[in-house]
């Protein structure tokens, strides 16, 4: 994945609430709303202000951007990046003083020291309120607000598929059919269906349609008419729908394989 602006919004605010994900917020001016562009972030407490965004995975952060246009804009900010919110290390950008008074609502980009991490902390040392250091961080132009912060970075690791590790085992007990496993390999999806007391039907390449599978199973079990086999398989799978749902809730291997395939096809 190439480096790009990540589009930080309200969903990126780290979990934990006041004192963990951010310092404090007024009821009418919440941090999540300011990140999503639905309100200003208001904090009328005298202290060093901060909030933390969770990028969802580790990124190599290269730039940030911000903007504010209110009565108490931030005028001195530091940026930290880490995979551990208990160990931030040195700031990747410090003394940012260009995000205030943005009457044109334009983003102001700031280069950072390249650093990899999942979490980004924005620390506000001073605001335009010289007396109390109260904060109004955001952009408001009736009837709209604008997001206040964004991160530019590149995912540090792509999804990889390893045949030895991305294999799942599932046994779906049914009157005549047990699906032993579905396994992911770099080149193919493969499925083995074992019929008790008869043998196995093995398919490789793209997963076969129900009709193709029915024909293969029918050839392995001649005494079951091909026209009836599809309905039999469907009935069995319907009976064990909840088992199948539980199985796929426990793994994202197939999704990860498909993501990799899409990535490879587009590159």
Describe the protein in words.
With 267 residues, the chain is of the alpha+beta class. The chain has 2 domains: 4-155, Jelly Rolls; 167-266, no CATH class. The chain has 5 helices and 14 strands. The protein has helices spanning 31-36, 210-220, 226-239, 241-249, 253-266; strands at 4-5, 41-43, 49-66, 74-82, 93-96, 108-127, 135-137, 139-141, 144-146, 149-155, 167-169, 177-184, 189-195, 199-203. Strands 1-10-3-6-4-5 form a 6-stranded antiparallel beta sheet, with no helix packed on it. It has a 4-stranded antiparallel beta sheet with strand order 11-12-13-14, with helices on one face. It has a two-stranded antiparallel sheet with strand order 2-7. Strand 11 (167-169) and strand 12 (177-184) form a beta hairpin. It is globular, with a radius of gyration of 27 Å. 25% of the residues are buried. Residues 159-208 and 220-224 have low confidence and may be disordered.
């Amino acid at each position: 994945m190439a480096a790009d602006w990540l589009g930080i919004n309200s969903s990126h605010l780290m979990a934990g609430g006041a004192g963990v994900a951010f310092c404090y917020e007024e009821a009418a001016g919440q941090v999540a709303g300011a990140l999503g562009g639905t309100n200003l972030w208001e904090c009328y407490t005298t202290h060093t202000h901060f909030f933390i965004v969770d990028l969802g995975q580790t990124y190599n952060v290269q730039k940030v951007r911000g903007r504010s246009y209110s009565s108490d804009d931030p005028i001195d900010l530091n940026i930290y990046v880490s995979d551990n919110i208990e160990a931030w290390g040195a700031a990747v950008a410090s003394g940012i003083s260009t995000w205030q008074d943005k009457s044109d609502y334009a983003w102001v980009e700031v280069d950072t020291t390249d650093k990899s991490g999942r979490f980004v902390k924005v620390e506000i040392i001073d605001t335009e309120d010289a007396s109390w250091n109260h904060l109004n961080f955001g952009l408001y132009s009736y009837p709209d607000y604008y997001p206040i912060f964004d991160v530019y970075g590149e995912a540090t690791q792509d999804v990889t598929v390893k045949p030895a590790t991305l294999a799942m085992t599932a046994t779906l007990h049914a009157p005549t059919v047990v699906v032993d496993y579905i396994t992911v390999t770099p080149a193919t999806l493969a499925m083995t269906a074992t019929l008790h007391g008869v043998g196995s039907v093995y398919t490789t390449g793209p997963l076969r349609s129900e009709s193709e599978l029915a024909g293969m199973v029918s050839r392995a079990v001649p005494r079951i008419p091909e026209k009836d086999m599809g309905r039999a398989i469907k009935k069995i799978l319907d009976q064990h729908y909840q088992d199948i749902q539980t199985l796929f809730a426990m793994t994202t291997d197939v999704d990860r394989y498909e993501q990799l395939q899409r990535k490879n096809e587009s590159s």
